[in-house]
Amino acid sequence: MRPIMYRADKPIVQAFAQPRAGLDPVFARVAAVALALVMAVVSAAPAHARGTPDGFADLAEKLLPAVVNISTTQKIEGRSEGPGFKLPPGSPLEDFFERFGNPGGNSPPRQAQSLGSGFVVDAEAGIVITNNHVIEGADEIKVILQDDTELTAELLGTDPKTDVAVLSVGEGHELQEVPFGDSDGARIGDWVVAIGNPLGFGGTVTAGIVSARGRDINAGPYDNFIQTDAPINRGNSGGPLFNMDGQVIGINTAIISQTGGSIGIGFAVPSNQAEQVIKQIREYGTTRRGWLGVGIQEVSPDIADSLGLEEAAGALVANVYEKSPAERAGFKSGDVVLRFDGQKVPSQRALPRMVANTDVGKEVDVVVWRNGEEKTLKVTLGELEKVDLASLRTEDGEQGQGDGSAAVTVESLGLSLAEITGEVAQRLELDPNTKGVLVTDVEPNSDAAQKTLQPGDIILEVNQNPVTNPGEVAAEVQKSVDASRKTVLMRLERNGEQRFVAVKINQG
Question: Is the pLDDT of residue 416 over 70?
Answer without folding.
Answer: yes
